[in-house]
Specification:
101 residues; mainly alpha; 6 helices
């Protein structure tokens, strides 16, 4: 993923940069490396917001919320779940609505 990220950054393909950053977040989350998972999820969110990709926005908030939940930061996790739900409802993304709930 790191090599892929470098390639996408060289190509300046922000859609793919956001996807690779998210994938890195997933990899670190599964390894329980929450600081790095959060770092890459937040980078992905920033890119998603920059390019205004409303279909990926609910998942970005959801993933950040999962990291907060895994660290027992319940207020922050709930805030991210609410942001995920709002974004999913606005875009009518059923899977995102279900995940947020």
């Amino acid at each position: 993923y790191q090599q892929s990220l470098k390639i996408e950054q060289t190509l300046k393909n922000e859609e793919n940069i956001a996807n690779v950053e998210n994938n890195l977040g997933v990899a670190y989350y599964e390894q329980k490396n929450y600081p790095l998972a959060m770092e890459y999820y937040q980078k992905s969110l920033k890119t998603i917001l920059k390019i205004n990709n409303v279909t990926r926005l609910p998942a970005a908030y959801y993933n950040i919320g999962k990291v907060y939940l895994a660290q027992n930061q319940l207020v922050e996790a709930l805030d991210m779940a609410q942001k995920s739900l709002t974004a999913a409802q606005k875009s009518q993304i059923r899977q995102g609505i279900r995940e947020a709930y």
